[in-house]
Amino acid sequence: MRFPYTFTDQMGLTVTLPQLPQRIVSLVPSQTELLFDLGLEDRLVGLTKFCIHPSDKVKQKTIIGGTKNFKLEVIDELQPDLIIGNKEENYEEGIAGLQDKYPVWMSDIYTLEDSLEMISQVGELTGTEARAEKIRQGIAAGFNNLQPVHPAIPTAYFIWRNPYMAVGSNNFIDHLLQRCGFSNIFADQPRYPEVSPEQLQAAAPKLILLSSEPYPFQEKHFGEFQEMCPEAVIKVVDGEMFSWYGSRLLQAPAYLHGIIEEVEQGIGH
Length: 269
Description:
By secondary structure, the protein is an alpha/beta fold. It has 2 domains: about 5-140, Nitrogenase molybdenum iron protein domain (Rossmann fold), CATH 3.40.50; about 155-265, 3-Layer(aba) Sandwich (Rossmann fold). The chain has 11 helices and 12 strands. The chain has helices at about 30-35, 55-60, 70-80, 90-100, 110-125, 130-145, 170-180, 195-205, 220-230, 240-245, 250-265; strands spanning about 5-10, 15, 25, 45, 60-65, 80-85, 105, 155-160, 165, 180-185, 205-210, 235. The chain has a 5-stranded parallel sheet, with helices on both faces. Helix 2 links the parallel strand 4 (about 45) and strand 5 (about 60-65). The radius of gyration is 20 Å and the shape is globular. The termini are far apart.
């Protein structure tokens, strides 16, 4: 590849890099983990306070704030030559401010295919194509072997409490639910709808999945959902396995297979 080189990101915006990036800032936890797995530890200079993997390595990097409130002065001090973000997880105003100063590459993820494309493109951006291809192939192979529940199970997936918020349509979690054969009862709703107890009762899911993030659901919350839906099977699930769309997807198929097996036993498929 000859520089300067122009890329098109997943939002259709062009990003020109004058040279191979040496000072990268990541604004998204799952993409931060990918950068480490691509061997870019020495070139990754800044990340968000939510970037927690790999735990031993992220502590050594500069924190630039959260995913929704960047500390622009900290980013300026780091003088990045590439910033990697995401349309949903970051905020438009902050990204626009960064784009005025730096090359910013944005992902836009709704499906597994979008994730695989992102991994390939980040590999190309950073000159780590071979590692990216190995990760991409590993993820694709794992999901090709994932057998969904049949028939599909009417499912509600909750991400928040007070108010209750569930996963609706047109997002990555909904896509992975479908891959598992968990039919999202709120798939006709906006991306992350507020759900009243009455709506949940009327929808009558057979399975309720409570995510470990962003709200830290635990077994102590089972009672309130059991009261609303006495017939439903309720499980706490690892939110990272349903929502992180970087290299963590290498681990997701085995985890999802385990959830499918447990649910089939619990529901009696």
